[in-house]
Design a protein that fits this description.
Elements (H helix, E strand, L loop, with lengths): L1 H7 L2 H12 L2 E2 H5 L6 H13 L3 E6 L2 E6 L1 H16 L3
Antiparallel strand pairs: 1-3, 2-3
Helix pairs in contact: 1-4
Amino acid sequence: MNNIFKALNDATRREILEMLKERDMTAGEIAEQFSISKPSISHHLDILKRADLVYSEKKGQFVYYSINTSIVEDLLQWVINLKSSKS
């Protein structure tokens, strides 16, 4: 769970997740949307992968990234349970 919160603590990573919510994208396509270096985007993607927030899949010569909706659902359920335990 700590990896998830660490990953979500950064605005760039949250923006990447918003983009992946719309469609699967390559690292290059993601990098085109930011004014930071490609290695920095790769670092952000690695953190998101370690937190299980994104998947990567090689298709031909490209690696496509997609959002892992099941981990997002688990996180939301955890937050809901946290709130309901206070009632």
